[in-house]
Amino acid sequence: MHTRRTMMALSGAGLASACASLRTPDPRNRLPPVRVDEARIIRIDVGLRPFRPSGFRVEREAFGDKALIHNYGHGGGGITLSWGTAKLALDLGYDSSISEYAVLGCGAVGLATARLLQERGAKVRLYARALPPNTTSNVAGAQWWPASVYDYSATTPDYRAQHVEASRFAFRRFQSLVGDAYGVEWEKNYNLASRPITSYPAREDEPMRQFVINQRDLLPHEHNFPRPFVREFETMMIETPLYLRRMEADVRLAGAEIVVREFSSAAEIQALPERVIFNCTGLGAGALFGDAEIMPARGQLVILLPQPEIAYNTIAREGYMFGRRDGVVLGGTFERGEWSLEPDPTDIAQIIAGHQSIFSAMG
Ligand SMILES: Cc1cc2nc3c(=O)[nH]c(=O)nc-3n(C[C@H](O)[C@H](O)[C@H](O)COP(=O)(O)OP(=O)(O)OC[C@H]3O[C@@H](n4cnc5c(N)ncnc54)[C@H](O)[C@@H]3O)c2cc1C
């Protein structure tokens, strides 16, 4: 028979072992670590995000006797938002009495714009200096989340409403593409922090919170990351090389002509035969249309050999890791005003060392 004293001792021991097991990761919750090793690097990518502090520009402009609809400047969220701003652009520029349209640009934004026009029965001619795989869109990570698209203080309430509307449309459209054909899939993300996480990826009271799926703050025994605070949530991931290849094929299959051509002035664009022109030239729009606000935000990525067991992402102070099927992507710098496409060895070394420190410490 247990006395009150032995009961207390037993419950004390039980509590102590419960506390220990709350701290020690349950083997069932252990995730495999990324093997961050220079020998495993398959390439270094550098891309220039088309960043505008006030956010993307979707706007209609009279252009001589033509209509010009801008759809560019998506910063670090252009894959995510592509279908959504394409929809906003069509709302401004599609006219059922006009059957032929020009789309400038063959990145994620131009391709989505072309597809939505085709879905309405329009004939599209797409003009671009570079096609996949040679676009910025190919370099993207690409997590479905519109991150680093604007500076909050430079945005208006109207812009923020457009941002949510574009996100909503794109969120649904990408869900219809989940699967091997387009390289879109759902994946778990882990935000690693040394302080409690309150605002990432979206605060509870923000409209963008509706797109954060299955969010949970993990208890210490529920993960083996070397950080005290871990937030789990799920996003779609877009394997950009496959996705863009497939989108380009879809656009061609639906009858678009793709013309490889570089424009050096708005006057050359003015001379195109189409009466309605969608401008999806990303960073190129600055020089073409005199937008002084747009700037590059350079991102450098280290891609490691694929590790099929790494089917998750991490986001930490040291950078992000996206476990893609075609490689493990380690990023990501965000350098405003930096135009060079040459990797910076110091930044690359930091990306590698930062991720080594995380993954080598996974229990
Ligand atoms: C390192 C990095 C990581 C990123 N991660 C993510 C992410 O996780 N999620 C996400 O959603 N986004 C991400 N992005 C952002 C995303 O890549 C961009 O926002 C997106 O690619 C912009 O698409 P776009 O079609 O506007 O531009 P682009 O892909 O640059 O396409 C522009 C097109 O216009 C053409 N063009 C430009 N100028 C001219 C001209 N003068 N004449 C003729 N054609 C012209 C180009 O040749 C090209 O075909 C990332 C970007 C980088 C660099």
Features of the shown structure:
30% helix, six-stranded mixed sheet, elongated, 15 strands, D-Amino Acid Oxidase, Chain A, domain 2, 26% strand, 363 residues, binds flavin-adenine dinucleotide, disordered N terminus
What is the terminal-to-terminal distance? Answer: 41 Å
CATH-level-2 architecture: 2-Layer Sandwich
At the first level of CATH, the class is Alpha Beta
On the 0 to 100 scale, the average pLDDT is 93
Ligand catalogue: flavin-adenine dinucleotide
Considering the protein shown, what is the CATH homologous superfamily?
A: D-Amino Acid Oxidase, subunit A, domain 2
Number of domains: 1
| SSE arrangement, N to C | HEEEHEHEHHEEEHEHEHEEEEEH
Largest beta-sheet details: 9 strands, mixed
CATH topology: D-Amino Acid Oxidase, Chain A, domain 2
How does the overall form come out from the CA principal axes?
Answer: elongated
Compute the number of strand runs.
Answer: 15
Helix content: 25-40%
List segments where confidence is low: pLDDT < 50 over at least 5 consecutive residues: 1-20
Radius of gyration: 24 Å
Q: What class, by secondary structure content?
A: alpha/beta
Summed up:
This protein is of the alpha/beta class.
Can you describe what's shown?
The chain has 363 residues and is α/β, with parallel strands linked by helices. It has a single domain (38-359), classed as D-Amino Acid Oxidase, Chain A, domain 2. Helix content is 30%, strand content 26%. The chain contains nine helices and 15 strands. Strands 1, 6, 7, 8, 11, 12, 13, 14 and 15 form a nine-stranded mixed beta sheet that branches. It has a six-stranded mixed beta sheet with strand order 2-3-10-4-5-9, covered by helices on one side. Strand 2 and strand 3 form a beta hairpin. Flavin-adenine dinucleotide (FAD) is lined by residues 47, 49-50, 72, 74-80, 104-110, 128-130, 135-137, 139-143, 262-263, 280-284, 288, 299, 301, 331-332.
